Amino acid sequence: MSTELKYTPIDQLAKIHETLNATFRSGKTLPLHYRRQQLLQLSRLVAENKDAISTAVIADLAKPQLEILMTELVPMATRAADAAKSLEEWTAPEKPAVAGHESWNVTVNKVPKGVALIISPWNYPVHLTISPLIGAIAAGCPAVIKPSENTANTSRVLAELFPKYLDTSAYQLVNGGVPETTELLKLPWDHIFYTGNGTVGRIVATAAAKHLTPITLELGGQCPVIVDPAYDMKIAAKRILFGKGLNAGQICNAPNHVLVPVEKQAELVDALKATLKEFYPNGALDKSSTYGRIINPNHFRRIQGLLKRTQGEIVFGGAVEGERGIEPTIVQNVKAGDSLLEDEIFGPILPIVPVANVDEAIEWVNRFPHALTLYAFTEDEALKKKILAHTNSGGLTFNHTFMNLAADEAPFGGHGASGHGYQHGVYSYKTFTHLRTSLDMPSDVEAFPGFTYAPYAQGVVDYLSQALEAPAS
């Protein structure tokens, strides 16, 4: 498949922006029947073109078909259809109880923020392009979608499909690289949703600040794993490697490194090696293997450079194939300051960091910026509570990896350096929705007789002063 990708002319971007703003001002995207129709069309886009999309993703990332279906296509088709069914519930105005003032008719109205910009990454080129778009459509927001130029095949296929299924006056896909993205960020948007790394996230945040634009950032970061020495190491090994092996480790919430008490390091490493032999009996780089490849030679060389500089001991893996294949690699006895701990690995390397005990593991976690997800393997309920109380992260998953992304009913998002804002289900809808409170005061009701209008009476001042009492302990 050709990797040629036609970029959107830069001089068209402002025109696209204006078209979407005109559509929003017209009210076209407001009716629920319109939103529902667009969401169902988005679901059909994925379902009816699964073969073409899968072929493109395979060309870009060599993902196994099962991974594409499980993490890219099925969730997006399902979530779009589910959102279409949920619009009445999500958009219903709320009537908060206003004690003593029920006649004021206070209403929380859920209104679209306006025209959104969605910038998606290359590692999950379908999922992370469509997931925020579902929220934008459900909220009634037109949107420009900017997929990654690194997944040229997938971005091209999506560019071909979008105008066939979606209303181009409200939803347009823009392809391009840094110049196109830079130009998009100069424009005033009503919300920006960016998924990617922290370096670019800071650029996006700076650009958004110039227009006081609200943003959602999903930035990933180092996601550590804490292993309780009492936990079953064989189960931990399988579940850690499941999360690490998906997309060859190129995922925002992949387990980045494992913190295990030193007396259990050898047992865990043996379990990890045995598991990899089970997962890939002929080797992960075998052509029949269900294992992906690195996105491009630049990232391949970056990961190789990390391995060459590590002071840890490579105990399994390390083989390469061409300019994109790196087999899962286990490195034990990794210490603070090692090359493998400098930043998010975003690849199939698993450093094992021996610690004295779980308390030291918790201290280790707290020395680093908040992760998108913290993983912990333990059946000890007291330890679970301790980890929850004494660490911080976007999310916390016990006894598995990656599965928090499958909990559609719960919010998914970062904290601090791993981002802010949420997505999934109703939380994606809320991201693009403004809660606009309205109050309707009856003409025959005065809010505070004797309080509202000048001249102010001393008796009213005395009354309020008496009411100002410190609460009882």
Name the descriptors:
globular, 2 domains, Aldehyde_DH_NAD(P), Aldehyde Dehydrogenase, Chain A, domain 2, Aldehyde Dehydrogenase, Chain A, domain 1, alpha/beta, 41% helix, six-stranded mixed sheet, seven-stranded mixed sheet
Write the layout of secondary structure elements.
Blueprint (H helix, E strand, L loop, with lengths): L12 H14 L5 H17 L1 H12 L3 H27 L15 E6 L3 E4 L7 H13 L3 E4 L5 H14 L5 E3 L4 H9 L4 E5 L2 H13 L4 E4 L4 E5 L5 H13 L9 E7 L3 H15 L17 H13 L3 E4 L3 E2 L3 E2 L2 E4 L16 E7 L2 H9 L4 E7 L3 H10 L2 E6 L20 E2 L4 H7 L1 E6 L19 H10 L6
Helix pairs in contact: 2-4, 2-5, 2-6, 3-4, 3-6, 4-5, 5-14, 9-10
Q: How many DSSP helices?
A: 15
Radius of gyration: 26 Å
Number of domains: 2
**Distance between the amino and carboxyl termini:** 72 Å
Active site: 218, 252
Keywords: NAD, Oxidoreductase
Family: Belongs to the aldehyde dehydrogenase family.
Organism: Sistotremastrum niveocremeum HHB9708
Would you write up a description of this structure?
- It is a single chain.
- Helix 2 packs antiparallel against helix 5 and helix 9 (233-245) crosses helix 10 (265-279).
- The termini are far apart.
- It is globular, with a radius of gyration of 26 Å.
- It folds into 2 domains: 10-219 and 423-434, Aldehyde Dehydrogenase, Chain A, domain 1; 223-410, Aldehyde Dehydrogenase, Chain A, domain 2 (3-Layer(aba) Sandwich), CATH 3.40.309.
- By secondary structure, the chain is an alpha/beta fold.
- Helix 9 (233-245) links the parallel strand 7 (223-227) and strand 8.
- The protein has helices spanning 13-26, 32-48, 50-61, 65-91, 127-139, 152-165, 178-186, 198-210, 233-245, 265-279, 297-309, 358-366, 381-390, 425-431, 458-467; strands spanning 107-112, 116-119, 143-146, 171-173, 191-195, 215-218, 223-227, 255-261, 313-316, 320-321, 325-326, 329-332, 349-355, 371-377, 393-398, 419-420, 433-438.
- The mean pLDDT is 95.
- It has a 7-stranded mixed beta sheet, sandwiched between helices. The protein has a 6-stranded mixed beta sheet with strand order 4-3-2-5-6-16, with helices on both faces. A two-stranded antiparallel ribbon has the order 1-17.
